[in-house]
Specification:
By secondary structure, the chain is α+β, with helices and mostly antiparallel strands. It contains twelve helices and nine strands. Strands 1-2-3-5-4 form a five-stranded antiparallel β-sheet, sandwiched between helices. Strands 6-9 form a two-stranded antiparallel sheet. Strands 7-8 form a two-stranded antiparallel sheet.
Length: 349
């Protein structure tokens, strides 16, 4: 996608949002993140607007608008759409803000804890929606649900984009582990369970902080274009084992208990610690595949610095739950290339 000029952005804004006085608009490019979508912040004397340009190169880009409308109708805190040029693939939305939970990573738990609990409340609104409650016309606009093929794709992504480059094992050893029935069985087991909507990329930089007071913490979710039927435990693991953020075991357990208590009245969902571990392993494999792809294929080498933390969390997860024992050897790393320590932690692709 070619870079849009400021003049072109303002011309389109004047056309689709005629009440905005473009003469007083300040245009700021937003470069944070690993997405192929392009974002700008349009700042007026009275408000701030997000302008997004997207393509169809990723299927989930086309799901952004219908996902926004649906989640908003369900009471989920997402930025409302102000205008949408479906043909041109441009979208204007309210600006949720520029501060995310990742920005609070060094704050004491007394500050961070309420923000995470507010985030889990928003997640629960999504997770209560059974795939059978999604209208058929919307299902066609959202991304395909987590089935055995998608779980296996994530596993292949891990082995092909991460393990072959960074594991200390030789290729024949990796191939033998990759082709074992254990991973296929895991994919089938997870796909056979009842599915509810999930965010799909539920991590610290996709949660915007609206209010950070412990007494009135509130958040807004972004980057939910990948919303689809899946398992709530996958989202929980995405957030609580997020390689971008440090969190103690006690803090994680507090949040898991908070989520469990919050959903205690939901007859369709029951907590299963083993299932959580399996979803966590699946999610961390996906994340490592993404880091390898973004860092090595797309040249965004700042993503590589998250590999040591992600591998450590995956190793800890499978060891504690006594699952996927052959995976431990895959997580022994070759010396990594020098990592770029500068810049903000990016958003996964």
């Amino acid at each position: 996608m070619s870079e849009l000029s400021e003049k072109r952005i303002l011309e389109m804004t004047a056309r689709f949002l005629p009440t905005v006085d473009i003469a007083g608009v300040q245009v700021e490019r937003i470069t944070k993140g690993g997405s192929d979508r392009q974002y700008w912040r349009l700042i007026t004397p009275d408000e701030s607007i997000i302008f997004m340009a997207y393509t169809d190169l990723r299927a989930d880009n086309l799901s952004f608008a219908p996902a926004t409308e649906f989640l908003s109708a369900q009471g989920v805190a997402v930025p409302p759409i102000l205008a949408h040029d479906d043909a041109g693939r441009y979208l204007w939305s309210e600006d949720a803000g520029a501060t995310d939970i990742w920005d609070f990573r060094n704050e004491p738990w007394e500050v961070r804890g309420p923000l995470y609990k507010a985030t889990l409340q928003e997640a629960a609104k999504i997770h209560r929606i059974s795939e059978h409650a999604v209208p058929d016309e919307l299902k066609a606009q959202l991304q395909r649900g987590f089935d055995a093929d998608l779980y296996q794709w994530e596993q292949d992504y891990f082995f092909n984009r991460f393990a072959v480059k960074f594991s200390s094992l030789e290729l024949p050893e990796l191939d033998a582990i990759h082709s074992s029935s254990v991973f296929k069985n895991l994919a089938q087991e997870l796909s056979d369970l009842p599915r509810f909507l999930v965010h799909r990329d539920f991590q610290s930089q996709n949660v915007i902080v609206k209010q950070s007071s412990p007494a009135s913490a509130s958040v807004c979710l972004i980057d939910y274009q990948g919303v689809r039927p899946g398992l709530p435990e996958y989202d929980l693991a995405s957030l609580l084992l997020d390689p971008y953020v440090d969190m103690s075991d006690g803090e994680r357990e507090e949040l898991l208990q908070y989520y469990r208590d919050f959903r205690a009245d939901d007859p369709e969902w029951n907590w299963d610690a083993k299932l959580y571990a399996k979803c966590a392993a699946q999610r961390l494999m996906q994340a490592l595949g993404a880091y390898g792809y973004l860092g090595e294929v797309l040249g965004k080498r700042e993503f590589l610095k998250h590999i040591p933390v992600a591998t450590a969390r995956l190793r800890d997860t499978i060891s504690r739950a006594n699952i996927l024992p052959d995976l431990v050897a895959v997580l022994n790393l070759n010396p990594l290339d020098p990592l770029n320590p500068a810049g903000n932690a990016p958003t996964e692709g």
